[in-house]
Amino acid sequence: MTARSGEPSVAGEYDPAMQALLQLLWGEGFLSPGGAGEVERLLEGSDIRGCSVLDIGAALGAIDELLVTVHGAAAVVAIDVDPALLAQLDLRIRRAGLGRQVTSRCVVPGPLPFAAESFDVVFSKDAIVQIPGKAALFAEVHRVLRPGGRFIASDWLRGSTGPHSAEMVEFFRLEGIAYNMASLEESAAALRAAGFRAVEVRDRNAWYLDLAQRELAAMTGPLLPVIVERIGRERALHFVANWRQLVVVLERGDLRPGHLKATKAN
What is the value of pTM for the model shown? Predict the structure, then answer.
């Protein structure tokens, strides 16, 4: 999803068929790998109880519900560029009775539309891969955090610099989504350059390779009839091909999902 600083995604790229497939794999309301379990893993060691949180790339809102009900956030502002996704998020939040704790905002490309020092935590789950200006984004995240505030994100990263491999280019083609990928090392350096301290990175390639292999086995086995019934045979077979290529680029180390954590100085 081609995006700019502060923009989590491009409206319309997650069509209904893709949304249906991803939720079959990752759980209702989740459009990023691992569902609730990976959110919990990302937040390990990061107490957000009582915090005000900005969620960049909120999508369907299942994560925002968890941030409040499971992880104790006091308030969440959920942003995305896709109004259709946010409409579903708003419905979910109303049904959960969390309208006072979680609010949504549709944003446009450019700087984050919030005053300096507005949040205790900026959170993002696999959305900033779609933002090309990492340095500008991290500077904006740093700006809107209060002193001592924390950036907690997972991102789809790459294993090397330079031109992408032919295997990765084919993966991009099948995905149909524009990726703007840095490496773990580049991301850490960009966070430090933006003024963050206590920068931590965690390579999640091995975890995601195992997950993707299990998902592919399900998609070519017991889950296939369900997917075909839900989105049609043509789209189902396209996504199977997509997942085969996902496993390839994970095995090669071309795709290296990772966790990023950093703190703004007091």
Answer: 0.93
CB distance 250 to 258 below 8 Å: no
* Alpha-carbon span 197 to 19, nearest angstrom: 36
Structural domains in the chain, CATH included, are 16-161+176-205+253-264 (3.40.50.150)
Q: Per residue of the chain (266 residues), what is the pLDDT tens digit?
A: 223 233 334 444 678 999 999 999 999 999 999 999 999 999 999 999 999 999 999 999 999 999 999 999 999 999 998 999 999 999 999 999 999 999 999 998 779 999 999 999 999 999 999 888 899 999 999 999 999 999 999 999 999 988 999 999 999 999 987 788 999 999 999 999 999 999 999 999 999 999 999 999 999 999 999 999 999 999 999 999 999 999 999 999 999 999 999 999 99
Can you say whether the dihedral through the CA atoms of 173, 178, 180, 183 is positive or negative? negative
Longest CA–CA separation in the chain, Å = 55
SS (H, E, C) the chain: CCCCCCCCCCCCCCCHHHHHHHHHHHCCCCCCCCHHHHHHHHCCCCCCCCCEEEEECCCCCHHHHHHHHCCCCCEEEEEECCHHHHHHHHHHHHHHCCCCCEEEEECCCCCCCCCCCCEEEEEEECCHHHCCCHHHHHHHHHHHEEEEEEEEEEEEEECCCCCCCHHHHHHHHHHCCCCCCCEHHHHHHHHHHCCEEEEEEEECHHHHHHHHHHHHHHHCCCCHHHHHHHHCHHHHHHHHHHHHHHHHHHHHCCEEEEEEEEEECC
**Amino acid making up residue 263:** T
